[in-house]
Design a protein that fits this description.
- The chain is of the alpha+beta class.
- It has four domains: 228 residues, Spore Coat Polysaccharide Biosynthesis Protein SpsA, Chain A, CATH 3.90.550.10; 66 residues, no CATH class; 169 residues, no CATH class; 139 residues, no CATH class.
- It contains 16 helices and 29 strands.
- Strands 1, 2, 3, 4, 5, 6, 7, 8 and 9 form a nine-stranded mixed β-sheet that branches. Strands 19-18-15-12-20 form a five-stranded antiparallel β-sheet, with no helix packed on it. The protein has a four-stranded antiparallel β-sheet with strand order 28-27-24-29, with no helix packed on it.
- Helix 1 runs parallel beside helix 2.
- The two termini are 39 Å apart.
């Protein structure tokens, strides 16, 4: 259980097995007062040396302490985010593979975080005791030691007004659940020295009003290799620092630019170049030169993001160009045509993604077909890191288009598919539908970053132990979405503007449209009030609305042997509550508040569910007790901030009663058809 671990130390590594062994040896010697329980997670980011063997030797010596995880997706941020998801601690501490930590490091770094006053903490990063700074280093500059990854604000503890460094920092788990993971467009990776994934997260917390603490007694010693003690390294570091600044903070929308470069950067580079030329001290001249190199980096990054309509210079900017150029601003109810396989594959990177949203092999079946937009996917829920609603851009859901799991181990979750507007084009609903290729006739695209075979290969991987992990939109929802504040009113404005909340039950008269709008506003008001109430209740550890109160220690199991097509009646809420434990679960399956509205209704069984992909791990979960999915019964998100994801509700057979075959009721027909049985998974 996650609660059994107090602290998780996350260490990401890449081809540094020798220094890694020293780092692990130092962290293994940590002294924490009982009953503290802690773990060390080492995330191997595609190392080609003896990294795995080095970690396994420590795992053999400390079997309950060290864990090894392999992350094949390159980039430190990907590795960090993988470590966060695999961790079980309430506090997450971070260190690097080229440092050693003092025996009291972990205790001192995390001591203040057991209370809720502080969201995170950072400690001192000092050089090895044999370190001697070069004479040309401008030590008076507050950031002089930053290229050496050193961080020292003196011996006094207190609040931090700047972000700590990733080599020595810790955060409460809830900060990641609330503010999101490390940005994957930042952070070093092979072939790129872009950094700041750690400081950007700290800036994010500080901007949100969270408090960070400086703990000088938490000391990390950082080895400084000789190649870093050169002017060339410092200049290259500041060049990359400038590029990172633009990626992290962007450019203000009202700033005057020339070819995408703010005029202020040209003024700054002139000023610092003149200072560099007239400075008398060699240290001052070099400090000015570093400033110039940093500004050159900013200009370079701005120029790599040209105005749309000009040629993109990198793969990232090319994909961004495509995505923004084809933003259709689609509304619920509009008709679209899915572009051809060739067109879509040309927009994908080598992982089969556009802006981190995977295009799954199952989606190729819909190429060339026409559908109506079910809802705009301007936001979505996620269960990978706690639970939260996150922002999604330029994406929609289509009516009845759900994943059938064919290329993902036969997963039976039936998730509603996300479609980037880049992959669609607006059409008239009465236009003739283009014939879609069959599964054995899918297009083969050559010369691009991604083809059909690589798309399928990316959908599942097998590790050395023979375990399969799957890669799909559900497992990547955290990657293609971004943090959104719970109280951000713009989400509800988008809900109204997109038509997601309109019933379309009235006519086209102005009076009917006004009534539809008022009903939508009422639904927004109800959702916002309920969400605000529940947020207050969570903070004061009270019961949320609506109240579901299970009381059992051991829950009963009931089987009816239901089969697709049978009619069932959902039991009353009182009868269902009587089968739930104190966590509102029956045999591990949650009875969610969104299921209450279906109590007493009569529905038809869509299918039995035996296996689904775990969104957190990507592994297939085989259900000991199969559950039931009912036609047209999915989450409406009245109590979950109006999320349009429309996840199927899972039902225990003990919550249902079989209806006599001779009984002919008026079966509930919902106004939404996101789960239309003729198009949903299992019925194609």
């Amino acid at each position: 259980m996650r609660d059994s671990i107090d602290i998780s130390v996350i260490l990401c590594t890449y081809n540094r097995c020798q220094s890694l062994a020293q780092a692990l040896d130092s962290v293994a010697r940590q002294i924490l007062p009982p009953p503290a329980n802690w773990e060390v997670i080492v995330v191997d980011n595609n190392s080609r040396d003896q990294t795995r063997q080095a970690v396994e030797s420590f795992r053999d010596r400390y079997p309950s302490r060290f864990r090894y995880i392999f992350e094949s997706k390159p980039g430190k941020s990907n590795a960090l985010n993988t470590g966060i998801r695999a961790s079980r601690g309430n506090i997450l501490a971070f260190m690097d593979d080229d440092v050693t930590v003092e025996t009291t490091w972990l205790q001192n770094l995390t001591a203040s975080l057991h209370a809720h006053e502080w969201a995170g903490a950072g400690g001192r990063i000092l050089p090895a005791r044999t370190f001697s700074p070069p004479r040309w280093l401008p030590r008076e500059s507050p950031y002089a030691l930053a290229p050496l990854a050193l961080f020292d604000l003196g011996p006094e503890a207190g609040p931090l007004t700047q972000s700590p460094f990733g080599t020595n920092m810790a955060f409460r788990r809830e900060t990641f659940e609330k503010y999101g993971d490390f940005r994957i467009d930042l952070g070093p990776r092979p072939g790129s020295a872009i950094r700041n994934e750690d400081s950007e997260f700290g800036h994010r917390l500080l901007a949100a009003g969270e408090r960070l603490r400086y703990e000088p007694s938490a000391v990390v010693r950082h080895e400084v290799p000789d190649h870093r003690l050169t002017k060339g390294y410092f200049l290259a570091w500041w060049l990359d620092k400038g590029r990172t600044q633009i990626r992290e903070f962007g450019i203000a929308s009202r700033v005057r630019c020339v070819r995408g470069v703010p005029l202020s950067l040209f003024r700054r580079i002139i000023v610092w170049t003149l200072r560099w030329m007239v400075a008398l001290s060699s240290r001052t001249r070099f400090e000015c030169k570093l400033k110039v190199w940093g500004i050159i980096g900013e200009i370079s990054e701005c120029s790599r993001r040209p105005a749309y309509g000009t040629a993109a210079t990198t793969k990232e900017s090319a994909q961004s160009h495509i995505g923004r150029k084809h933003s259709l601003d689609l509304k619920a109810g509009e008709w679209v045509e899915v572009r051809s396989g060739e067109e879509i594959l040309a927009t994908l990177d080598e992982h089969g993604c556009l802006e981190n949203l995977p295009f799954m092999p199952e989606m190729l079946h819909y190429c060339g077909k026409r559908f109506r937009v079910y809802k705009r996917a301007d936001k979505t829920c996620q269960y990978i890191v706690g639970w939260s609603i996150r922002r999604v851009e330029n994406a929609v859901h289509l009516e009845g288009v759900r994943c059938d799991g064919t290329d993902h181990g036969g997963c039976e979750a039936g998730c509603l598919i996300f479609w980037k507007e880049t992959w669609l084009k607006r059409v008239e609903h009465n236009a003739e539908t283009i014939r879609s290729p069959l599964r054995d006739e899918l297009p083969i695209v050559r010369g691009g970053l991604c083809g059909v075979e690589s798309l399928r290969a990316a959908s599942q991987k097998t590790n050395e132990q023979g375990e399969k992990t799957y890669f799909c939109q559900a497992t990547q929802v955290y990657e293609f979405s971004s943090y959104m504040k719970m109280w951000d009113p713009r989400q509800y404005v988008r809900d109204l503007r997109s038509g997601n909340l309109f019933t379309s039950l009235g006519g086209k008269s102005r009076l009917h449209r006004t009534l539809d709008l008022l009903l939508a506003i009422t639904r927004v008001f109800n959702a916002a009030i309920i969400d605000l109430f529940n947020e207050v209740q969570k903070r004061r550890h009270g019961m949320t609305y609506p109240v579901i109160a299970g009381t059992l220690e051991k829950t009963p199991a009931a089987t009816l042997g239901l089969q697709p097509g049978e009619l069932v009646q959902v039991k009353s809420k009182e009868n269902i509550f009587a089968t739930l434990d104190t966590q509102n679960r029956n045999r591990g399956l949650l009875f969610d508040s969104e299921m209450l509205k279906y109590c007493g209704g009569i529905y038809r069984v869509l299918r039995r569910v035996h296996k689904i992909i775990d969104e957190k791990t990507g592994k297939m979960l085989d259900m000991k007790f199969p559950c039931i999915i009912l036609e047209g019964v999915f989450c409406r998100s009245d109590y979950h901030r109006l999320c349009p994801r429309a996840i199927y509700s899972y039902w225990r057979e003990g919550w249902l009663d079989r209806v006599s075959p001779n009984f002919t009721p008026m079966i509930h027909q919902e106004e939404d058809i996101a789960s239309c049985p003729t198009l949903s998974a299992g019925n194609r």
